[in-house]
Specification:
It contains six helices and 13 strands. By secondary structure, the protein is of the alpha+beta class. The strands form two sheets. A five-stranded antiparallel barrel has the order 9-10-13-12-11. The protein has a two-stranded antiparallel sheet with strand order 1-2. Helix 2 runs antiparallel to helix 3. The chain is flat, with a radius of gyration of 33 Å.
């Protein structure tokens, strides 16, 4: 939040100077665009100058480049307009703060360079100061007046601070490609280019929302060492379970960023220790039977990117140690079966893509050590249905392959609605 001193001493005239330079930049970009169209792009426009597949590709690329020159002008003009609007708004709010300060002084207060309000005893005679000091009611009246004027000053500073935040958000939004002409809708061939539809009216520029420009810092979580065990017998509607663990360490880091409709996220996880778990039971939810044990070190790193209804991910995993397990589950939200046994080291890589809530992913693993694994089934996770299968074999050296299909009804529904809206806009 801005301070009183910062507001009162900032030279707001620099905003109009900057706006003039952004307007000049737009003018220079117009000259470059014109030259580009008359020279470089021109060679792909005539039927007798260049033909073939390369000409078609060049025509698309050159048109896209000229589009960026034009979009850069729109963006520069919008930034200039926002800066002029910022000057007008901040100048008005600064005058109101100055007026509040003058009113406070006229009411018998002092206002310091940092905005601290106090009663001005220097305007009183010696007898008046003595009377105030010895009059409890008089002192209470002064405290009330000081508090009132301090709040009045603080409210004016807060108004400037809120306007400053709005201006910052508007400027940030103006320089992020809206991609309204991308993905086959127009000549825009890049998702991170200039914003041809930048909003230059500060009054229309919406205030910051988390989905517009958001950065979630990396969150590190470190636990261990630790040991423990627990067990519970079967109860009505609940499973019997047993667990024992000896964790040496567990380190997890997560990060997430959003730039308009583009969302990037990642996770890194490292674990070292030994664990053993077992679950079994029959309830109204279904039948569950599972037992597994492992000891060693695991590493996972995954990155994801999503843009609207399209996304993709990549994952790398490594394991060194021994593991064994068997499982079977049949409930309303999961039907899976699997078994595995392995000792040695393995490394795996995988990736996949998702369109309109339907995703397909593949994994491949290399094993050094004896082992075998097989699993298949489907389950509901975070509202999405996942169908997966995996098989692997290694007498000494070998590996495994896996397939995963994801169907997210919620994302599919939203994508379908977006397509319907888009088709409707064509008719409009």
């Amino acid at each position: 939040m801005l301070t009183y001193g910062k507001v009162m001493t900032t030279n707001l005239g620099l905003l109009t100077s900057a706006a003039a330079k952004w307007d000049a930049m737009a003018g220079e970009l117009k000259k470059v665009e014109t030259r580009y169209g008359e020279t470089v792009q021109k060679i792909t426009m005539g039927d007798d100058t260049w033909s073939g597949v390369s000409a078609g590709v060049a025509r698309t690329k050159f048109t896209a480049t000229r589009y960026e020159y034009s979009a850069a002008q729109s963006q520069a003009k919008a930034v200039a307009s926002l800066l002029r609007g910022a000057h007008e708004q901040l100048t008005d709010l600064k005058k109101k703060l100055e007026s509040a300060r003058d009113d406070a002084i006229a009411a018998g207060m002092t206002v310091s360079e940092v905005g601290h309000v106090a009663f001005d005893y220097s305007k009183l005679t010696a007898a008046e100061r003595s009377a105030y000091h010895h009059d409890p009611d008089g002192q209470a009246t002064i405290r009330t007046a000081v508090t009132k004027w301090q709040k009045h000053i603080d409210d004016r500073v807060k108004a400037v601070s809120e306007a400053d935040t709005h201006i910052k958000d508007a400027l940030q939004a103006a320089v992020i490609d809206s991609n309204r002409d991308a993905l086959g809708k127009g000549a825009d061939e890049t998702l991170t280019g200039f914003n041809n539809y930048a909003e230059g009216d500060l009054a229309k520029a919406k205030k910051h929302e988390p989905a517009d420009i958001k950065t979630k810092p990396d969150a590190w979580e470190v636990t261990g060492p630790g040991v423990g065990a627990s067990a519970s017998g079967p109860k009505y509607g609940k499973e019997a379970s047993a667990k024992a663990y000896a964790d040496l360490f567990h380190i997890t880091a997560k990060g997430e960023e959003e730039y308009g409709r583009l969302k990037l996220s990642g996770i890194e996880d490292i674990y070292g220790g030994a664990r053993a778990t077992a679950n079994a039971g029959i309830s109204d939810k279904g039948i569950v039977g599972k037992a597994e044990a492992s000891a060693g070190i695991r590493f996972l790193e995954e990155g994801r990117a999503e843009y609207g209804h399209v996304g993709g991910y990549g994952r790398v995993e490594a394991f060194g140690g021994a593991e064994a397990g068997v499982s079977a589950k049949a409930t309303k939200e999961e039907v899976t079966v699997g078994a595995k046994a392995f000792a040695g080291g393995k490394i795996s890589g995988g990736g996949g893509a998702e369109v309109a809530g339907i995703g397909v992913g593949l994994t491949g693993e290399g094993w050094a050590g004896p082992g075998a694994e097989a699993s298949f089934g489907w389950r509901k996770e975070d509202g999405a249905w996942k169908i997966s299968g995996k098989a692997g074999l290694s007498p000494g050296f070998g590996g495994a392959v896996g397939l995963e299909i994801t169907i997210d009804p919620d994302k599919f529904g939203k994508a379908k609605d977006a397509v319907v809206d888009e088709i409707g806009s064509w008719f409009d």
